[in-house]
Amino acid sequence: MALRARALYDFRSENPGEISLREHEVLSLCSEQDIEGWLEGVNSRGDRGLFPASYVQVIRAPEPGPAGDLGPGAPARYANVPPGGFEPLPAPPPDAFQPLLQPQQAPPNTFQQPGFPYGGGALQPAAQQLYGGYQASQGSDDDWDDEWDDSSTVADEPGALGSGAYPDLDGSSSAGGAAGRYRLSTRSDLSLGSRGGSAPPQHHPSGAKSSATVSRNLNRFSTFVKSGGEAFVLGEASGFVKDGDKLCVVLGPYGPEWQENPYPFQCTIDDPTKQTKFKGMKSYISYKLVPTHTQVPVHRRYKHFDWLYARLAEKFPVISVPHLPEKQATGRFEEDFISKRRKGLIWWMNHMASHPVLAQCDVFQHFLTCPSSTDEKAWKQGKRKAEKDEMVGANFFLTLSTPPAAALDLQEVESKIDGFKCFTKKMDDSALQLNHTANEFARKQVTGFKKEYQKVGQSFRGLSQAFELDQQAFSVGLNQAIAFTGDAYDAIGELFAEQPRQDLDPVMDLLALYQGHLANFPDIIHVQKGALTKVKESRRHVEEGKMEVQKADGIQDRCNTISFATLAEIHHFHQIRVRDFKSQMQHFLQQQIIFFQKVTQKLEEALHKYDSV
Questions:
Q1: Which of 18, 455, 505, 561 shows the smallest number of beta carbons within 10 Å?
Q2: 383 is known to lie in a ligand binding site
Q3: Computed over its alpha carbons, how large is the radius of gyration of the chain?
């Protein structure tokens, strides 16, 4: 009989590989054995995945009676069953199924992950997709073409990380002797086995102290695992790091922060122009980018921005890469949409150029400086180089350089991270509320306020027309003044309709950008929290005498590296937040003052018309 369980509480999935539960829902279990508090099963909607074991209660089936006791009411078809039941078949030899258990006999391209308890099943296709590398989103508003892609892909290149492979961990590399490159490795005896096969047992003179290992996360689809953070903390990262790839964290007056960019720059985005290709069959919008450090204009389409974002999001798991403006399937060539997208791209570029790490990234500099229209070969070479970047996943953390002889108090770090987590939740809620309020107020200004002021103006003009029936010469000035007042209210209504473009729209654009940042930080925090969990587990093993102190110290050192980077990114976020909101609030209030000055001017002009009556 299939194992079943009943959900005791609602559970909302937050990561790929998890499924949501509804209270009182009955689920089918793949196994009653939970690992690290998680079970695998299928919910009533047919979704298969992981969920917390504490959220469900296993439904126990009644115990069956003895095999030979069929009871007086047993059906006749069981009449030939021997009284004692069938004799058990003899057990097969121990090596009867040995060929089936050899790792090297696994079919090619089968997803295998040591420590993942559910070999096969419905989770394997999802795992293959998630571990197969980041695929750039290809929305309907910008298709890829031959100018951008050719038949060669990263997956076709031998040793490409984008295809899910890992760098050689044995130190062999054709580029190992290249100038400016040096090999870094975090591999230690803590490794839990090689990928794709079983590791030979390790014999240690210390005996029991080397028997314990820090366990892997059960959820292999969590951000901590996919980012490579787990592999790095467990000491499995190994690769060659170029001198220019090091990302330095320094200690500033407020704690860890990214080392400043020694060559700061800005980049303008202007002249959105509609272009065509294939004899007019394909249309797109091209933007002119002019970086201040080169002063050489380059032209980029939205799909180029989209490709760059995909590369950066894949490479930097502990850096908040700003989100691009949303895509739109229809109306892409309307003036309002083009203007709004350009403003969003300007905000995006401003945050990219302001980040000490992202601004100096090779792929970003290639995007800003390579003229794809005049040097297609150089553009494609840089594109392929970025897609074959080996410093991604666990190897990315090898590029982090932290202050020497600086140790972090993990309790203090955890407290700061928890405080920032609460801050981002509150800021996200308030940003949503402000965005809703500003959007509703702008809608009222464009439609309601304009209409109401025009009603007032029309009423004044109606009064003026009524007075004109008097035909008295001395009332002509009054009639004209009242009519002018009506016109003034019409003009004020138009001012209200045009004002949101000047003050509220820029505020909502900024809120949209920061909502993207706030959506990034849960994954960044998850990576850091995962590293802290491994440190706590290793300390517990040391206290129990099951792990050497040296191994636990290695885990803590690597956790410190991730913590330094996370705190540096949080510091940078707060810096640009203060800068951006200060500037935007100043702009908003200045525009409000100018607006009401215009309204006052219209009213004063109407008032002066009565002086000559």
A1: 455
A2: no
A3: 33
CB-CB contact of 256 with 238 (8 Å): no
Residue 18 pLDDT more than 90?
no
Per-residue 3-state assignment (H helix, E strand, C coil) for 250-282 = EEECCEEEECCCCCCCCEEEEEEEEEEECCCCE
Per-residue pLDDT tens for 26-78? 989 888 877 777 888 898 888 888 888 888 888 876 545 444 444 444 443 33
What is the rounded distance in angstroms from the CA atom of residue 519 to the CA atom of residue 507? 18
DSSP state, residue 46 = S
Strand, helix or coil at 151?
coil
Q: Quote the CA–CA distance of 318 and 312 in Å, as a whole number.
A: 11
Q: How far apart are the first and last CA of the chain?
A: 98
List, for residues 236-295, the tens digit of each pLDDT value.
Answer: 887 788 777 889 999 999 999 999 999 999 999 998 888 877 766 788 888 999 999 999
Greater pLDDT, 532 or 186: 532
Name which of 282, 251, 283, 127 is nearest 563 in CA terms: 251
341 annotated ligand-binding residue:
yes
How far is 558 from 298, CA to CA, in rounded Å?
A: 40
- 233: Cβ contacts below 8 Å, ≥ 6 apart: 530, 531, 534, 555, 558, 559, 562
187 is in an annotated binding site: no
Residue for token pair 């069953």 = 81
Contact 544, 213 (CB under 8 A): no
Burial string for 290-316 (b: 16+ CB within 10 Å, else e) reads bbeeeeeebebbbbbbbbbbbbbbbbb
* Cβ(363)–Cβ(311) below 8 Å: yes
Write the CA distances from 602 to 205, 497, 597, 609, integer angstroms. 91, 15, 9, 11
φ, ψ dihedrals at 11, nearest 5°: -140, 130
* 210: exposed, middle or buried (Cβ count in 10 Å: 0-12, 13-18, 19+): middle
Tokens of 293: 């450090």
Q: At what angle do helices 504-543 and 549-608 cross, to 10 degrees?
A: 170
Asked whether 8 and 55 are in contact (CB, 8 A), the reply is yes
